[in-house]
Structure formats: C-alpha cells, structure tokens
C-alpha cells in the first residue's frame, strides 16, 4: 500500500512540473528545440533522485547504528 502512495505522489509531482514546462513551451511557440524536450524529460527524472536519496538514508541508518555499538 505504501509503495502505491509513493508512486502516486511521484506521478502527480512529475505531471505537475511537466505540465508547467509544456505550457511555457507552448507560450513560446511550441516544441522547437532539444532543450524543451530535455526539460520535459527532466520533469520525470528529478523526483526519482529524491527517492534515491531517501532510500540511501534509510539503508545507511541501520549500518551507522551498528557501528556505534
């Protein structure tokens, strides 16, 4: 159940920022260059980095606790 909530939040955040990026490009005359396409792709990629960092912290915490004992 928790993974479903995390995936849903991830998708919502990615769609929100992709929508904003798409609208900005549309106001400027449509998708004309690689930078706009790259911006749309990065909207889906950056939330994954947050999940990677949180996962790294969660995995390191028990190891750090074991070293202190």
Which descriptors would you attach to this protein?
single chain, 69 residues, mainly alpha, 2 helices
**Main β sheet profile:** none
Distance between the termini: 34 Å
Q: What order do the SSEs take from the amino end to the carboxyl end, as H and E?
A: HH
The low-confidence parts are none
What shape does the CA trace take?
Answer: elongated
Strand content: under 5%
Total number of strands: 0
The overall pLDDT average reads 77
Total individual domains: 1
Helix- and strand-based class? mainly alpha
Helix content: over 70%
Rg from Cα = 18 Å
Number of helices: 2
Report on this model:
The chain is mainly α. Helices cover 88% and strands 0% of the residues. It has one domain (2-68). It is built from two helices and no strands. The longest helix has 35 residues, at 34-68. The protein starts with a helix and ends with a helix. 0% of the residues are buried.
What does this entry show, briefly?
The chain has 69 residues and is mainly alpha-helical.
């Amino acid at each position: 159940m928790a993974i479903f909530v995390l995936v849903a939040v991830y998708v919502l955040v990615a769609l929100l920022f992709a929508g904003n990026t798409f609208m900005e490009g549309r106001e400027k005359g449509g998708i004309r260059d690689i930078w706009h396409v790259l911006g749309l792709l990065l909207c889906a990629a950056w939330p994954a980095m947050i999940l990677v960092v949180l996962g790294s912290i969660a995995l390191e915490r028990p190891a750090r606790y074991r070293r202190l004992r």
